[in-house]
Write a structure and sequence with these properties.
Strand content: under 5%
Radius of gyration: 20 Å
Oligomer: single chain
Shape: elongated
Order of helices and strands: HHHHHHHHHH
Mean pLDDT: 87
Number of strands: 0
Distance between the termini: 46 Å
Structural class: mainly alpha
Helix content: over 70%
Largest sheet: none
Number of helices: 10
Low-confidence stretches: none
């Protein structure tokens, strides 16, 4: 009850930090999707690029988030704005599930369906946009869903470099040793992650081939 009272008393700041959190997650996920989906398509049609691309994305995932923020901080254009730095770091972390699921979804399309499309005279680009991507869309969205949930959690760390978001409450609560302040950041972040998971999961089921 103390946590709820604290959130209600500070609802303006909670809302402001939640919107900052949504901004960081939304922009980074959009960038990751714009980069990851084409890369997934590329390696599904160019198998020799499969290992280098997936290995690079895997290596990024193994770097601790604070270490990555610290590594990017000295970069001239990025270091000037903490939100730019946070968005780049979150984008890099979100790439792996999107690339991997796009690759899996495209490769999972029934070869007989692709051959039937070729037999009907479809070009490679028409096959991609009219056959492969529609059939793989639910798998791709599954990767986007994982990326969003990862980003919501990691965006709380962005407060350590002054990028804002709900992590502000968490770090402030840790410094004050106050559970109410920690939970004022953790609870909305958990609600955001669960809402995104449910919402994108519903869309994924709607687009699943029957």
């Amino acid at each position: 009850m103390n946590v709820i009272r604290f959130i209600l008393q500070n609802h303006t700041q909670v809302l402001e930090l939640t919107l900052e959190h949504l901004w960081l997650v939304g922009v980074s996920t959009a960038f990751a999707t714009l980069i990851g989906v084409p890369l997934g398509i590329l390696i599904s049609h160019r198998p020799r690029l499969n290992k280098p691309v997936l290995a690079s994305a895997n290596i990024i995932q193994t770097i601790p988030s604070l270490a990555l923020f610290g590594f990017l901080l000295p970069m001239p254009w990025l270091g000037e704005r903490s939100d730019r730095l946070a968005i780049l770091a979150l984008t890099l972390y979100a790439l792996l599930p999107i690339i991997r699921n796009t690759f899996t979804g495209i490769c999972g399309v029934d070869p007989a369906v692709v051959e039937a499309g070729r037999g009907m005279g479809l070009t490679e680009s028409q096959l991609l946009f009219q056959v492969e991507l529609p059939l793989a869309m639910s798998v791709i969205l599954s990767g986007v869903r994982v990326a969003i949930v990862i980003s919501v959690g990691l965006a709380t760390i962005a407060a350590a470099i002054g990028a804002g978001g709900l992590g502000e409450f968490i770090f402030r609560g840790l410094a004050m040793v106050d559970d109410r302040v920690i939970l004022a950041g953790a609870i909305p972040a958990a609600v955001l992650a669960l809402s995104a998971d449910v919402g994108v999961g519903w869309l994924e089921r709607r687009l699943r081939p029957r």
